[in-house]
C-alpha cells in the first residue's frame, strides 16, 4: 500500500509517456535502468486493455450518441440529421413511457420483496444451524444458471396442461397457462422468475457482510438488555448499510438493462405489458432497422444508469467509502 | 441450560430448518420437475408432472446422440475460455501498472474503467453490432469473444488492482535486486503470487461468458456458431409442442454450469462478495 500514496507528490514532475525524463517521480525507479524505460513499460502494459476498451466499449457508446441524432437504418453512414427528434419521439411513445414505468415497478418490487427476503435468509443462515452450508449452496445455485435457461425452464413449468404450475395455479384459483399471457399478471410473473434467479446473489452479499461484523457488537447490545430484534435493528442493520446500498444499486442497474429473461419469457408481450427498455431497443434496432431511434433508447438507458450511478455515488454511497465502486476493501 | 431452554432452542432450530426447506423447495422443485420431465413424454407430463417417469423416455439420449448439442457446448466452451484468457491477460497487465506505478492520467484511466462497470451492456449492443459488421466479425467467434473481454475489463481490473496493491513493495525491491525487470517481476513474481485472485476473476469471466445471450444472438446468424443459451432458446421455439424434449435440452444445458459451480463455488462467491462490497 505504499505506492499509491506517492501519486500526489509525483504527479507534478511526472510525464507518463516520457521515459528518460528523470523527474522526481521516476527517481525511485532509477535502480531499474538500463531496463526498458518507464514509458515503454506503461505503454506495453496498458495497450491491450485500453485498445479493447476504447474500441469495443467507449466507441460504441459514442457511436450510439451520434446515431441517436439521425434517422438511420444502420446501413451506410447516417446522413439524415434529425436533432433530438428521436428523443422527443421516444418520450411521446406509450411503449417507451411504459418501459420506464415498468422498470420503476420492477425496482420497487425488488426493493420491497426481493432484497428484504434475501436479507432475512442471510440472517437466518448466519445462525448456527446444521446443514447451513448445504442450504447456502442450494439458495445460490440459480445464480449460475443463465437467464435464458431459467426463463425456458419457467416457461415450461407454467406451460398449459403439462406444467407443474397447473396444480399451483388451480390452488390459487388462477390458470397456469395464462400467467405469462395475462397483461395483469405478466410483470409480476417476470419479477418472480427474476427473483428466483437473483435472490441468492443478494443473500450471499448480505451473508458475507454479516460475517464481517464482529459478534461482540450484537452480543454487547443483548447484554445491555436489547431484544434480538432491537440488536438487529439498531446494531446489525446499520452496519449492513453499505452492502444494502450497493445491492440497491445493483438491482436498479440490473433492471435498467433487463433483457434476456423478458425476451425469452414473453418477448415483451402481451401487448407490451412486460416490455423493458432493452427489449424495445432490440425490437427497433434489430427487427425494424430504425437504428437511430433505437440508439436514442440506448442513450436513455445509458444516461439513466449514469445519472443514477453518479447521484447514488454522491448522495448515498459517499459516507460508506470514498467510492464504493472504485475502492474495494480487502474482502479476502 | 434448563430443560425449557433446551426445548426452546430445539423448536427454534426446527422452525429455521422448516423455512430453509421451504425456500429450498422453491428452488429445487422446478429443477427437479425439469430433470424428471426430460425422461417423460408429454402425456406423462400432464397426468403426472412430479412423479417418477413410467416408462422412461430417452429424450436425453436423443439429444446427446445428436451433434447439435455437442457443437453448441463446444462453442460455449471455446468462447468462454478465449474471452477469459484475453480479459484476464490484458486486465492483469493494466492492473499491474495501475497498482504499482504513479503516472499522470492514472486516476483518469482508473475512473474510466470504473465507469465502464455501470455501462449496461445493452446500451452498446446496437453500435457494437454495426461496428462488428464493419469489421467483418459477424458469424465469427471473435465477434463475441473480443467484446465480452472488453466488457469484462472493468471488474477484472478492479479486483486485480486491489490484490496487486496488497503485495508489499519489498517483494518488488527484492526482485529488482535479483535482476528482475518490470516484465520479469510481473511474469515471474506477481502473477504466481496472484493465483487466487486470478482464479476468482477467471471464474467470474467464465460464468459471464457462459450465460451471455444477447451478443451471440445478434452476432451469429449461422447456427453452427450458436452457443448454448442461443441454442436452448431456438430449441424451445422449434419444439414448442414437445415440452418433454425441451425440458431435456434445458436440463442438459444446465449441467455444465451447475457442475462448474460445484467445483468453483469458493472463487465465484469470493469474487462476487469481494468485488461488490465496499
Question: Can you walk me through this structure?
Answer:
The complex is a heterodimer of chains A (332) and B (278). Chain A is mainly alpha-helical and 332 residues long. The two termini of chain A are 16 Å apart. Chain A is globular and about 70 Å long. In chain A, helix 2 packs across helix 13, helix 4 packs antiparallel against helix 10 and helix 10 packs antiparallel against helix 13. Helix content of chain A is 63%, strand content 1%. Chain A has a two-stranded antiparallel sheet. Chain A has a domain of 223 residues: MetI-like (MetI-like fold, Orthogonal Bundle), CATH 1.10.3720.10. Chain B contains 13 helices and no strands. The longest helix of chain B has 35 residues. In chain B, helix 1 crosses helix 13 and helix 7 runs antiparallel to helix 10. Chain B is mainly α. The mean pLDDT of chain B is 87. Chain B starts with a helix and ends with a helix. Chain B has two domains: 35 residues; 201 residues, MetI-like (MetI-like fold), CATH 1.10.3720. Classes of the chains: A mainly alpha (332), B mainly alpha (278). Chains A and B meet through helix 1, helix 2, helix 4, helix 5 and helix 6 of A and helix 1, helix 2, helix 4, helix 5 and helix 6 of B. Chain A: Its main location: membrane. Chain A: It comes from Micromonospora parastrephiae. Chain A: InterPro entries: ABC_transporter_permease (IPR051393), MetI-like (IPR000515), MetI-like_sf (IPR035906).
In short:
The complex is a heterodimer of chains A (332) and B (278). Chain A is an all-alpha fold.
How would you summarize the topology of this molecule?
The complex is a heterodimer of chains A (332) and B (278).
Chain A: H1 7-11, H2 38-67, E1 70-71, E2 80-81, H3 85-92, H4 94-125, H5 132-140, H6 147-157, H7 165-172, H8 186-211, H9 215-223, H10 228-256, H11 260-265, H12 277-287, H13 291-316
Antiparallel strand pairs in A: 1-2
Helix pairs in contact in A: 2-13, 3-13, 4-8, 4-10, 8-10, 9-10, 10-13, 12-13
Chain B: H1 3-37, H2 42-47, H3 59-64, H4 67-100, H5 106-116, H6 121-134, H7 142-165, H8 169-177, H9 182-193, H10 195-211, H11 214-219, H12 228-238, H13 243-276
Amino acid at each position: 500500500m505504499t505506492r499509491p500514496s506517492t501519486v500526489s507528490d509525483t504527479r507534478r514532475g511526472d510525464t507518463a509517456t516520457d521515459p528518460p525524463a528523470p523527474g522526481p517521480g521516476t527517481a525511485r525507479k532509477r535502480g531499474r535502468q538500463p531496463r526498458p524505460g518507464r514509458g515503454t513499460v506503461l505503454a506495453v502494459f496498458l495497450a491491450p486493455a485500453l485498445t479493447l476498451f476504447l474500441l469495443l466499449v467507449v466507441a460504441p457508446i459514442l457511436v450510439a450518441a451520434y446515431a441517436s441524432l439521425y434517422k438511420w437504418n444502420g446501413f451506410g453512414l447516417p446522413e439524415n440529421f434529425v436533432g433530438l427528434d428521436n428523443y422527443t419521439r421516444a418520450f411521446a411513445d406509450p411503449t417507451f413511457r411504459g418501459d420506464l414505468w415498468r422498470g420503476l415497478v420492477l425496482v420497487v418490487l425488488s426493493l420491497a420483496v426481493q432484497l428484504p427476503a434475501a436479507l432475512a435468509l442471510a440472517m437466518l443462515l448466519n445462525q448456527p444451524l446444521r446443514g447451513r452450508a448445504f442450504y447456502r449452496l442450494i439458495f445460490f445455485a440459480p445464480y449460475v444458471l443463465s437467464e435464458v435457461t431459467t426463463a425456458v425452464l419457467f416457461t415450461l413449468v407454467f406451460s398449459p396442461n403439462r406444467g407443474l404450475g397447473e396444480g399451483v395455479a388451480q390452488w390459487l384459483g388462477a390458470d397456469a397457462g395464462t400467467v405469462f399471457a395475462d397483461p395483469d399478471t405478466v410483470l409480476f410473473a417476470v419479477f418472480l422468475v427474476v427473483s428466483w434467479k437473483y435472490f441468492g446473489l443478494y443473500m450471499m452479499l448480505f451473508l458475507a457482510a454479516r460475517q464481517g461484523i464482529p459478534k461482540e457488537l450484537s452480543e454487547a447490545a443483548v447484554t445491555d438488555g436489547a431484544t434480538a430484534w432491537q440488536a438487529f435493528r439498531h446494531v446489525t442493520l446499520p452496519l449492513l448499510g453499505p452492502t444494502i446500498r450497493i445491492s440497491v444499486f445493483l438491482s436498479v442497474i440490473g433492471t435498467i438493462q433487463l433483457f434476456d429473461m423478458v425476451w425469452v419469457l414473453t418477448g415483451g408481450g402481451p401487448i407490451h405489458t412486460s416490455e423493458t427498455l432493452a427489449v424495445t431497443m432490440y425490437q427497433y434496432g434489430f427487427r425494424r432497422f430504425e437504428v437511430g431511434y433505437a440508439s436514442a433508447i440506448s442513450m436513455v438507458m445509458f444516461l439513466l444508469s449514469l445519472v443514477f450511478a453518479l447521484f447514488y455515488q454522491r448522495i448515498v454511497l459517499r459516507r460508506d467509502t470514498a467510492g464504493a465502486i472504485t475502492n474495494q476493501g480487502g474482502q479476502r | 441450560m434448563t430443560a425449557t431452554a433446551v426445548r426452546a432452542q430445539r423448536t427454534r432450530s426446527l422452525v429455521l430448518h422448516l423455512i430453509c426447506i421451504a425456500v429450498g423447495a422453491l428452488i429445487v422443485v422446478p429443477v427437479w420437475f425439469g430433470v424428471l420431465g426430460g425422461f417423460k413424454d408429454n402425456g406423462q407430463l400432464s397426468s403426472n408432472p412430479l412423479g417418477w417417469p413410467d416408462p422412461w423416455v430417452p429424450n436425453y439420449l436423443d439429444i446427446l446422440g445428436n451433434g447439435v448439442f455437442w457443437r453448441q457446448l463446444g462453442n460455449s466452451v471455446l468462447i468462454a475460455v478465449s474471452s477469459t484468457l484475453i480479459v484476464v491477460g490484458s486486465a492483469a497487465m493494466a492492473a499491474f501498472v495501475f497498482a504499482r506505478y504513479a503516472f499522470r492520467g492514472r486516476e483518469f484511466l482508473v475512473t474510466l474503467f470504473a465507469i465502464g462497470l455501470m455501462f449496461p451492456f445493452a446500451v452498446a449492443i446496437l453500435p457494437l453490432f454495426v461496428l462488428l459488421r464493419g469489421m467483418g466479425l459477424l458469424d465469427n467467434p471473435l465477434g463475441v469473444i473480443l467484446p465480452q473481454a472488453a466488457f469484462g475489463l472493468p471488474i477484472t481490473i478492479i479486483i486485480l488492482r486491489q490484490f496487486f496493491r496488497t503485495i508489499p513493495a519489498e517483494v518488488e525491491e527484492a526482485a529488482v535486486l535479483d535482476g528482475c525487470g518490470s516484465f520479469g517481476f510481473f511474469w515471474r513474481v506477481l502473477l504466481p503470487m496472484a493465483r487466487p485472485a486470478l482464479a476468482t476473476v477467471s471464474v467470474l469471466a467464465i460464468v459471464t461468458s457462459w450465460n451471455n445471450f444477447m451478443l451471440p444472438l445478434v452476432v451469429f446468424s449461422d447456427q453452427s456458431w450458436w452457443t448454448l443459451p442461443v441454442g436452448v432458446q431456438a430449441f424451445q421455439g422449434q419444439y414448442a409442442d414437445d415440452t418433454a424434449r425441451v425440458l431435456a435440452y434445458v436440463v442438459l444445458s444446465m449441467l455444465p454450469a451447475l457442475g462448474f459451480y460445484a467445483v468453483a463455488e469458493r472463487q465465484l462467491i469470493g469474487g462476487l462478495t469481494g468485488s461488490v462490497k465496499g
